[in-house]
């Protein structure tokens, strides 16, 4: 039986039903036209680094829904092993979010050699505050090309796994305790799970053990 839109709306109101709308996606990558130009030192080469661990890292930001609003997640991933070596969450997209993720990675893993950190052109990553922090830890900053989603494919693959496995039923109820607990647990499981063919279907933990020999 054909029904018009107004009839459906009236019947839904009468039954106390409401349609579920997709939230508007927040804009994450906002370039700063005043930011200093930086070279692309990775050139979309995400193959395991021949010179070992803690030499090339990449970072990006994603958003996950909660019943309190968006929660933003920033990660730092070692390109050689695909291990998440640093991360942070916040209810904002200010530079402190990505700075805390970098600080977490550098405190957890203290490289003895200079590290290249690869990101997009977002104003958080090109800010002077982030550049000062990177210089403090001896990190060389690198950026991908504008408008090329493939340049952040490694980080986006991890984000897709998180959203598929942790948020397949409903959003987190809060921005605080539950997301942090689930993310820590998921990050630990990911380090032990086999990954793609670029690592020979070894887990990040297995890959790091092999590279450390």
UniProtKB/TrEMBL annotation:
One matching Pfam family is: rve
User: One of this protein's GO BP terms?
Assistant: DNA integration
**Gene Ontology terms, MF aspect:** nucleic acid binding
Domain (Integrase catalytic) spans 46-212
Query: What name does this protein carry?
Result: Integrase catalytic domain-containing protein
